[in-house]
Amino acid sequence: MKKALLLFIAFTTISLGGLSAQSFSGLTKALTSSSSETQQEALLNQSEIQNLIAAKLGESPELTDEAINYLKNNAETKSEISAVIAENPTSKEKIMDYITSNPELLSKAMDYIKSKPELMEKALKLIGM
Q1: Are 63 and 95 contacting, i.e. CB atoms less than 8 angstroms apart?
Q2: Which of 7, 53, 77, 119 has CA 20 to 30 A from 60's CA?
Q3: What is the pLDDT of residues 54-89, one digit of tens each?
Q4: Digit-coded pLDDT (tens) for 25-47
Q5: How far apart are CA 85 and CA 94, in angstroms?
Q6: C-alpha 33: how far from its chain's center?
Q7: What pTM does this model have?
Q8: What does the domain layout of the chain look like in residue ranges?
């Protein structure tokens, strides 16, 4: 057992010694970024967090535009959101009220936001996280 542990430590030391500082730094950044995105996605999967974001989604022009554009271009939601836009062509606020009150549309919009790390980060900042 001790021999296996010593071999493992020796192998690890030799392997890490072969890495340049730059590649090790890049690896650390990649792992940190991936971990951060995973944590953000875990937060967005919580219904309480989604409710907070839904309540404030209309306060961010960028997130509002992204959500509406995504739903307009999604085959499953295109006809419904197009009808809402036709009824309220100048009011993004009313469109967002409709989206946030419709569980199916809100779920699609939240899934889209979760799929884009930069949008995920903005949504979390919107609620102070």
Answers
A1: no
A2: 77
A3: 888 889 999 999 999 999 999 999 999 999 999 998
A4: 443 444 344 456 677 777 767 77
A5: 9
A6: 13
A7: 0.66
A8: 40-129
Amino acid at 53: I
Gap between the Cα atoms of 113 and 23, Å rounded = 31
Look at the block and give the residue holding tokens 């219904």.
47
Neighbours of 109 (CB within 10 A): 28
Question: Which are the contacts of 87, defined by CB distance < 8 A and separation ≥ 6?
Answer: 94
Measured distance CA(76)–CA(105) in Å, rounded = 10
Helices (H) and strands (E) in the chain, counts: 8, 0
Q: What is the pLDDT, as a whole number, of residue 47?
A: 78
Give the pair of three-digit tokens for residue 23.
């590649």
Distance CA 64, CA 58 (A): 6
